[in-house]
């Protein structure tokens, strides 16, 4: 067992970040790395990963309910119609991360999500970048921060009008939705997505 894994009182091995508090542990155990294929679900994850850029995931997760309320539960049809009044409302909402560029990006990304329906939709588009293999890290240092597929996904999304979708942010998205399995070897969650054996 690597020192990057901690065995909890329940006997389950988790990475250090997921063992640090109950909120992160619950997210790790039930959500992180599980497949998401709905448009709204992917738009939410894409948006939250954009807001997370440069911040800790714990900050975003602690504000997730406020984000959901502020952004109409990440319904892209509703967010795409946000006006300047909505933007000003969001800039005054202390419950979310008030970053003007990221808020503008989320509204633009909602519009781009609707446009992607002409190409089969956000889900088919994102999942078309699934790699043929997934990493099998034993330590944190073996976990990639980007991949050829995340670079291609970032480039393809930018070409279609998406913003704040760099290759590192897109790799984090791929991890979060199970497109790659970067659970450490030995973690109780390794291989639980049903996508990777």
UniProtKB/TrEMBL annotation:
PANTHER family hit by this protein: DNA-3-METHYLADENINE GLYCOSYLASE 1 (PTHR30037), DNA-3-METHYLADENINE GLYCOSYLASE I (PTHR30037:SF4)
Pfam families: Adenine_glyco
Protein known as: 3-methyladenine DNA glycosylase
Domain of life: Bacteria
InterPro entries: Adenine_glyco, DNA-3mA_glycosylase, DNA_glycosylase
SUPFAM superfamilies: DNA-glycosylase
Organism annotation: Glutamicibacter nicotianae
